[in-house]
Design brief:
Shape: globular
Largest sheet: 10 strands, mixed
CATH topology of the largest domain: Alpha-Beta Plaits
Distance between the termini: 14 Å
Order of helices and strands: EHEEHEEEHEEHEHHE
Helix content: 10-25%
Number of domains: 2
Number of helices: 6
Strand content: 25-35%
Number of strands: 10
Length: 272
């Protein structure tokens, strides 16, 4: 038996999340992957992910694994999966993991980024990857509020959905920065590079051991409300103490969120 691991990227918009749904007609990343990988390996396989992204959430660094008896070379499998996905997802890296490897249980941390377009005008070019917030945001207020999220915390108030064993998670790092803006007119002919370079973007990044369902989006929604003045400084502390999701702000839209990295101890990356 072999354990194959893949780092994949996908656009979340066409999918009803990563995890397969009760209705098989609903497209999911897991459903697509299992269909393709099973065909490539000529046996039915189950694909397990590091993080079950919600409907509409993107990924550039999702990690999945499957167990197989197939002897097909890993590089052949990797290329075939990308080719047969027809642009819906792509394999960025692949490795043969130890037999005990598990994409979710062995992960040491996960990193999500949320992008906010903070200006009066929308950007049709960036709409699929950002949350357009017209109200001016106080970045320093967001940064100060985000500091109260770091460390081991009970995040029951910042989650919604499935029941879990416990609500404690460790946020190792939160950063909120404006991305550098520069005028490229006359020096760069690519409209796409110009659009990104000149957009008033704020990137909020979270690194944690794990996340609860909808947790990042509810955190971003609350930070944005503080940054816009709709809620007072100290809101995060108060919501955490309440342990009541009803005290959180509404979750930020899914399209601004992306799973960018999943890290593992070194011994998980190659068989021993």
């Amino acid at each position: 038996m072999r354990t194959l691991a893949f780092r994949i990227a996908y656009d979340g918009k066409p999918f009803h999340g990563f995890q397969k749904q009760k209705d098989p007609a609903l497209p999911t990343v897991q459903g697509l992957l299992e269909h393709i990988v099973s065909d490539v390996l000529a046996e039915r396989v189950e694909v397990v992910c590091a993080g079950r992204t919600d409907t509409g959430v993107h990924a550039t660094g999702q990690v999945v694994h499957c167990v197989t008896q197939s002897t097909r070379p890993l590089e052949v499998v990797s290329r075939a999966v990308t080719r047969l996905a027809h642009g819906r997802l792509a394999v960025r890296a692949a490795w043969e993991a130890p037999p005990w490897f598990h994409a979710r249980h062995r992960a040491s941390c996960r990193v999500y980024q949320y992008h906010i377009l903070n200006g009066p005008e929308p950007s049709p070019t960036l709409a699929a990857r950002t949350w357009h917030v017209r109200r001016p945001l106080d970045l320093r207020a967001i940064q100060a509020e985000a500091r109260d999220l770091q460390g081991r915390r009970d995040f029951k108030a910042f989650q919604a959905g499935a029941q879990v064993d416990h609500y404690f998670r460790t946020i190792k790092r939160v950063s909120a920065v404006t991305l550098p803006t520069e005028t490229r007119h006359g020096t760069d002919r690519s409209y796409l590079r110009r659009e990104v370079a000149e957009a008033p973007l704020i990137c909020v990044e979270f690194e944690a051991d794990a996340f609860l369902p909808h947790m990042v989006r509810m955190l971003v929604g609350t930070l944005v409300d503080v940054g816009s003045g709709l809620r007072r400084p100290g809101t995060v502390r108060a919501v955490l103490r309440s342990r009541d999701p009803g005290h959180s702000s509404a979750a930020a839209p899914a399209n601004g969120l992306c799973l960018v990295d999943v890290a593992y101890p070194a011994h998980c990356l190659a068989p021993h």
